[in-house]
Specification:
The chain is an alpha+beta fold. The chain is built from six helices and eleven strands. α3 packs across α5. The protein is globular, with a radius of gyration of 17 Å.
């Protein structure tokens, strides 16, 4: 049985470069998702992540039993705030988020329901949804370093890149965590930063 490795097959989604912002088009993609408010080090965010993984691996096992295997993709999170400067100025209590794990295109509501029925009860499990996210026209880059050092790149996007392209925000800022912060030093963390946009 061939195992799908989305990080290797989807070069647009995972192929961001660190030397600047690139404009890309992201197709609609299915995710497991759970939403909340506050800093990423907060208890609600930690519980949200803890609720996503049992379902992600449950869907993997359901899918494998049906003849289609895949590697569970990295965690990602959409972030937004009423005022975008909450990110460039690191006002973390104002951050809103939707933690997500991408699923293969063949995963459907039935697979989600089957995995949920078998999952061990953990905080937040009942709040996880299976939904499509359509980001479309976007700018993205690869950030190497601690999450707290993303501010200058975001400021460049907001203050220079987007005005020059005559676009504005079309959805939440999206981060895809290619590195495990439990195993990788902060200065070596690799994070894709993506911002959906639309014409002014």
């Amino acid at each position: 049985m061939t195992k799908l490795e989305l990080k290797k097959t989807d070069k647009t989604y995972y192929g961001a470069r660190a030397d600047g912002w690139a404009r890309v088009t992201i197709a609609p993609i299915p995710y497991l998702a759970i939403a909340g408010v506050g800093a990423p080090e907060s208890t609600p965010y930690g519980e949200a992540v803890g609720a996503l993984y049992p379902l992600a691996y449950g869907i993997k096992f359901v899918s494998k039993a049906a003849g289609r295997d895949f590697t569970v993709p990295p965690l990602s999170t959409q972030w937004w705030a009423d005022d975008p400067t909450a990110f460039t100025q690191n006002r973390r209590a104002e951050w809103r988020w939707q933690a997500m794990i991408r699923m293969p295109d063949w995963v459907d509501d039935d697979a989600f329901a089957a995995a949920r029925a078998k999952a061990k009860t953990v905080p937040g499990l009942d709040d996880v949804r299976f939904s499509m996210v359509d980001e479309g026209d976007s700018f993205q880059t690869l950030h190497i370093g601690p999450y707290s050092a993303e501010g200058p790149k975001l400021a460049d996007l907001h203050d220079r890149i987007m005005p020059e392209a005559h676009v504005t925000f079309a959805g939440p800022h999206h981060e895809i965590y290619l590195s495990d912060p439990r195993r990788v030093a902060p200065e070596k963390l690799r994070t894709i930063i993506r911002q959906p946009v639309r014409p002014l």
